[in-house]
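Quick illustration, no need to memorize.
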Amino acid sequence: MSSQSIMPAAQSELTPDLARAIVARAEQISGIRIDAGKLEFVRLRVGRRLAALSLDSFEGYLQVLSRDSAGEEVRHLVEALTTHTTSFFREHRHYDWLEQEGIDRLLEGRDRGPFVVWSAAASIGAELWSAGMILAERNDKGHGPTDWQLIGTDISERILQRATAATFAEDEITGITPSRAARFLLRSRKLRDRNGCPIYRIAPDLRARARFQRVNLQDLKGLAPFSADIAFLRNVLIYFDEDGRNRVVSNVAGRLRPGGILFTGHAEPLGPHPMLETVRPTIYRKV
C-alpha cells in the first residue's frame, strides 16, 4: 500500500486522546512541549511516521512507541514534531553587539585556551556559521582570537546531518552580505536545488573549525567537555515548561566560562538567574 493511500485513512483516526498520548511520549524523552490540541499539526507531522513505517492507524503507532525500549522511534517522533526555523544573521542585534563590543569585552584579560562559540539548538547551522564568519573576519584583520572553535548541538540527528554538510540553497543565504558570501561560500558547479538554483557550501576553513553533536539540552548527556565563551540558546525555550526552561538555562550556563555571554531569543527573556546577569535584553553574562 502506498503512503498516499495510508495517509487519509490514518489521519481520520487521530483522536484527542491519541494525540495527547503520542505527544506525551515525545515530551517524556525530550522535555519539549507540543500542543496536542493542534490536531491538524499533530496529524500531519506524525502521519509522516505512519507512512514511513507503513502503518494504517495512529493507535498502531502508539503501540510501536510503547514497544520502543531503545528510544529510536521516539527520536524520530521528536524530530517530526519540532520545527527548525533559522537563518543567517537572524536577530541581527546580537551579531551587531558581538562585532561592536562583545568580542572585545570577552577577549579582555581572558585566560588561554580556544575561544568557543556554542550554538545549543543549532538546527541547520546558520546561527553558528554566522558567528563563525564574524570571528573569521576579525581574525583576518588581526583583531580576534587565533584559536577558536564552533560547536553545534541539537536534539535532531537528521537536522545535524544538514548542519554538518554545511550546504544551503540560494533562498537560505539571503542574510549574508555579498562580501561575506564571496569570502565564506562556495557555489557548486553541479548541484542545484529543486527550483534549479545553485547550492552553496560553507568554505573549508570555516568548516574545519566546527563540530556537531546530538544532545538533549535537558541533561547534556554525552556532550564532550568544553567551556564556551559564547552560547546561543535562541528560539528553543518556548518549547519547554518553566521547570524545563530553568533546567536548560542552568545546563547551558554551566558550560559558559566566567564572563561568558548567553544569547536568548528576543521572545524569550530570562528572569533572575543565580549564574547570570543582564547585559542587555536577551544578552546575559555569566557571573
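The chain has two domains: 3-81, 92-286.
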